[in-house]
Amino acid sequence: MKAAVPLFAALSLVASIPGYAASPASERVSYQCENRTKMTVVYSGHTATIQNGDGHGKIVLARHRSAKGQTYETSSKMIHREGDTIIYQMGKLPGTTCRPVS
Fold this sequence. Notes:
single chain; mainly beta; Lipocalin; eight-stranded antiparallel β-barrel; 1 helix
């Protein structure tokens, strides 16, 4: 039973780090972007998986610390999520705003 106390303390410490708060087990959101891109993003733990609108290809982005909202990145793609809206950026191209669709 002694091991449970340090584990609980460690988990509490991690949960208190900004940008790393506990998140829902899994959330699936479909988006329509201003540049006409359609995608579905599955948020799960500390990752976001982009599924293209045509159903082909998946890209897994890792969650990083962010002062506001959540940011998920790979070396060439980025999603910044704040509320329902995301900014999706590919490489050095300007980001595009994406909103959820039903």
